[in-house]
Automatic annotation (TrEMBL):
Signal peptide: none annotated. This is ABC transporter domain-containing protein. Keywords: ATP-binding, Nucleotide-binding, Transport. It holds the Pfam family ABC_tran. PROSITE patterns: ABC_TRANSPORTER_1, ABC_TRANSPORTER_2. The lineage of its organism: Bacteria, Pseudomonadati, Pseudomonadota, Gammaproteobacteria, Alteromonadales. It comes from Pseudoalteromonas phenolica. The keyword Metal-binding does not apply. Residues 6-230 form the ABC transporter domain. Belongs to the ABC transporter superfamily.
Amino acid sequence: MEQAAVKIVNAHKAFSNTQVLKALNMTVPTGSVYALLGNNGAGKSTLLSMLLGALQPEQGDIRLLGEPVSTRLKSRLGCLIDAPAFYQNLTIKEFLSYCAKMKGLPKQCIDEALTIVNLQAKQHTRLKRCSLGMKQRAALANAILGQPELLILDEPTNGLDPSGIEEIRTLIRTLPERFNTTVLFSSHVLEEVEKVATHVGILAQGNLVIEGSLPDLLDDPLGTLEVSISAEHTDKAQTLLSRVFKVSTPEAGKITIHQIDKSLCPQVYKSLLAQNIDFYQFRYHTQSLSKLFNNIHLSMHKEAEYA
């Protein structure tokens, strides 16, 4: 069995009396593009900081590329965490030359990184004159200097325009095949994640509540049917449909049928017509990352209410 690029077992981290990460287990397969998702305050930044050695867990074991976290790994890792700090009077190329020297990397890797992030034409621009998007590209170029085995990125498309976002998406998606690089990145843009990631982990309340390959997580033959009904018929429709299906009413005039096979939608349609229930919207949705994410947080919120 191939060794995982990242392996975390039973990791705990607290600040003062606040438990941020609780018995966290996580596996990032080698060669994957793994997206770490979570709301603000879920513990994403803390987790990424622990992977890079900036924070230490109180308990648990963390392995990167089969080794404990240490400075010995720095030549095998690339990272982009938080807003990058720059020497503003340097040009982009001078900045990358300095970074390459600090990492002990040859000069030829600089031109390669500039090409990958499409900054060749801007390499002699001083950083103080760069846009936020250009600075983000320069920071990403630094992260991929020397073709690292593991790349850790925190919100890598921040500050980029739509075309820049698409370019970085393509880069991230192709890194495993081009350079044998495993990518772990955090994001709050679920649509972006679905276009890039091969694997996903969802962090909530200090726990990784679900992880796996994206196709497996979204492989649900059942979907959701949303019906918009005249407000006065909402109760009648709910009574009728809840005899057969799992139904919720998020608001008056809205009926949601959960975990329903698409082939049963005509039956619902005919039942509503037969009972003279007026409806004006009838939409079926298959599983999406957004729905999975929202359902997990809704479920945890309800559990907390009844705890």
